[in-house]
Write a structure and sequence with these properties.
Length: about 375
């Protein structure tokens, strides 16, 4: 969804979507292309020599990268986006659901990271982006091989956070991540799974049902496009996203070499509060997390202490808001749209039925989605919640 409903904004967003799929083009190169060539549309039609010049210095393209870029451009023709864009072009490039840095709900905290994600693919309840955009969530991380005590605490923490109205961010990995999500789901909360794989892959494979439940009740997030080959480094990269989406981090149990410690270190550098569940001093699986207790982290013995410190989460606060002063007027203003939507409709269908431009309609749909009235689905399709 765009910041505003200017057709030019929509056009710029579509070009970013086109370039974001190009091999070798990441955050820095995309920004450099736009700055050096005036626009991404202009960059698309530029010669190889102009592109090489624009991407000189630390963003320089190697020979194979340039060959891949030229193959990508030739495969999509001289004008993958017309002006104005057609409905077919919007459907093609806007799928699957994703956020770009210029979008209204893109979390601003992620822009402060050393390597901000160029795009965020997501599936689930889009209304959660409002809370995540303001880092109103709690990350729970830990080892894949915890003790029974660690598993129990992770589930209890997930339940307590859900009961208090806090989205629970974790990585859907084995062990602590899975238990935290499980506890959140049991309490009817909103889990947020940050993946180290594309959305269409499940890792570990036996988490198929858990991942589906998180997508149904909460949100799945990945910066990796479908078809991206698996690499061990992707799981380390997702740690920074978990921290960027949260305002506090809970370290349940992890050894001295755990990737969860990277999340804790980044959270510490960003000034985020870190809570640590104490464990036996001699337990290898908790050597890394226990060490943080001597570095300024807050011990977490009872999940209630965490809730007492954080207070009510954004989901509970939203429920407390008076429907008569927030949702009800919105429903009244959008009565025509909701009637046109019926049991479900696509963006193009709604534009045709209500005779409005896609950018304007997207803005209206976003307001209803953030209010929890509508739910977006793949294919630019919306249904009532």
């Amino acid at each position: 969804m765009e910041r505003g409903h200017d057709p030019a904004v929509e056009q710029q967003r579509l070009w970013r979507l086109v370039w974001s799929r190009c091999p070798g083009i990441g955050w820095q190169r995309l920004e450099r292309l736009e700055a050096m060539l005036g626009s991404l549309a202009e960059a698309w039609s530029a010669s190889s020599e102009r592109l090489e010049h624009a991407l000189s210095g630390h963003t320089r393209l190697h020979k194979r990268e340039l060959e891949a870029l030229e193959h990508y451009r030739s495969s999509h023709g001289p004008a993958p986006i017309s002006d104005p864009a057609t409905a077919a072009q919007r459907r093609r490039w806007a799928q699957p659901a994703r956020l770009l840095p210029s979008d209204l709900t893109y979390p601003e905290a992620l822009l402060k990271l050393d390597r901000p994600p160029l795009q965020l693919f997501w599936r689930g309840q889009g209304s959660l982006w409002r809370a995540l955009g303001e880092s109103q969530a709690v990350a729970v991380v830990g080892t894949r091989r915890p003790s029974r005590h660690g598993l129990t605490m992770a589930r209890l923490i997930g339940r307590a956070l859900a009961d208090a109205g806090w989205p629970v961010v974790s990585g859907l990995a084995e062990g602590i991540d899975a238990e935290a999500h499980g506890g959140c789901l049991e309490a009817g909360g909103k889990p947020v799974g940050v993946l180290g794989t594309p959305l269409n892959r499940v890792y570990p494979r036996h988490h198929t049902h858990l991942q589906a439940e998180v997508a149904e009740q909460g949100l799945l997030v990945s910066e990796l496009a479908e078809g991206t080959p698996g690499r061990a480094g992707h799981f380390a990269l997702r740690n920074r996203l978990q921290v960027g989406l949260a305002q506090a981090l809970v370290l349940v149990e992890c050894p001295a070499s755990s990737g969860a410690l990277h999340s804790a270190q980044l959270a510490w550098e960003l000034g985020m509060p870190i809570w640590v569940v104490p464990a036996d001093a001699g337990r290898i699986s908790a050597a890394g997390s226990n060490r943080w207790l001597g570095q300024g982290a807050t011990p977490l013995i009872n999940p209630a202490d965490l809730i007492n410190s954080l207070g009510a989460g954004p989901i509970r606060q939203a429920r407390r808001s008076s429907a008569s002063t927030t949702v009800a007027p919105l429903l009244q203003r959008e009565a025509a749209l909701l009637a046109a939507l019926g049991a479900g409709a696509s963006l193009d269908q709604l534009c045709d039925r209500l005779r409005q431009a896609p950018a304007v309609m997207s803005e209206r749909l976003l307001r209803l989605e953030l209010a929890g009235v509508l739910r977006s689905e793949p294919g630019l399709w919306w249904r009532p919640c």
